[in-house]
Amino acid sequence: MNNQKLQIKKKVKKHIPKDWLCELRILYRLTMETFNDIKRTGIVNLVIITTMAAILTIFGAFFRSAMSISSFAHELGNVLEISVYLKSGTDTNVAKNRIKEFEHVENVKIIPKDVSWANLRREMSLPDISNPLPDTLHVKVDKPENITTVFNNIKDLKSVVEDMSYAQELAKKIQTLNHVVNTITVLVVIIMCILTITIINNTIQLVIQSRKDEIEIMRLMGVSNWYIRFPLIMQGAFYGFAGSLIAILPLNLVQNGLNNVHKFFMVPSPLYAHSIVIFTMFAMGILFGAGGSFLCIKKHLQV
C-alpha cells in the first residue's frame, strides 16, 4: 500500500510544472535561515572556526610534509642500484637483455671489467697484476619498494650471476620512512574527523535546542524534512570553509619552509603540492563540517 502511494506521488510530481521563481525563493529562504542560525550562535562561531582552522592547519602541515618526505624518499630510491657481478666468460649484452625483461627494472648499465679496474687503479696504488674484477651490471629499479623483488629475480640467474649487492639497509629505511609517514597522515585524518564531528555536533545541538519550538511548528505545517535539515548542514559546511580559509595563512609558511629545504638539498618539490593540499583541506573541512551536522541532526532531531 505504501509503495503504491509513493508511486502515485512520484507520478503526480512529474506532471506538476516547476516554478523556478518559487525554487529560487526557497533557496534564498534557506540561505537566509543558515545565516540566521550562524548569528544565533554568536561569539561561539569564532571559537568553532578558530578550532577548525587549527585542526585543518595540523592536517595540512602533516599532509604537505608527507608529500615532501615521499619526494625525498623517491629521490633516494632513484639512486639505489643493484650491482650484479657476472661470471667469467658471460656475454654482458645477453645478461643485460635477460635482466631488462624482469618487471620493475627501469634501466641496466654495463660496466666492463677493464673500466672498473682502470678506475680502481686510479684511486688506489695497486701492484701490476692481471685484472681480477668481473664484468658488472648496474640495475636501476622503478621504485625502492620493488628492489627486493628484482634482487630475488636476478639471483635466480645462477648460470650468469656470480654475486650481487645493494644498499639493503638504506632501502629498508626508505620503506620504513614511507610507511611511518603514511600511517601518521591517516591517523591525523582520523583524529581530525573525530574532533570536527564532536565540535560540530555540540554546536548544532545548541542551535536545535534554541529553535525547538520553531522546528515543531514547521513540522505541524508539513514542512519538508530537508527544509529543516538544509540550513543546519550548511552551517556545518560554513564552519569547515571558514576554518580552511584561515588555515591557508599558516600553510603558506609551511610551504615556504619546505620549498627552502628542497632547494637546499637540490631535490625538486612535488608538482602542484600546495594546490593539492589546499584543495584537499577545503574538501575535507566542508565535508566533515556538513557530515558532522548531518549526524547530529539524525541523533537529536527526529526528522
From TrEMBL:
The keyword Transmembrane applies. Residues 80-160 form the FtsX extracellular domain. Its main location: membrane. The lineage of its organism: Bacteria, Candidatus Scatousia. It is a multi-pass membrane protein. The chain crosses the membrane at residues 42-63, 184-208, 228-251, 271-297. It comes from the Bacteria. Keywords: Cell cycle, Cell division, Cell membrane, Membrane, Transmembrane, Transmembrane helix. Belongs to the ABC-4 integral membrane protein family. FtsX subfamily. It is found in: Cell membrane. This is Cell division protein FtsX. InterPro entries: ABC3_permease_C (IPR003838), FtsX (IPR004513), FtsX_ECD (IPR040690). One of its GO terms (cellular component) is plasma membrane. Pfam families: FtsX, FtsX_ECD. It comes from Candidatus Scatousia excrementipullorum. Residues 187-299 form the ABC3 transporter permease C-terminal domain. GO terms for biological process: cell division.
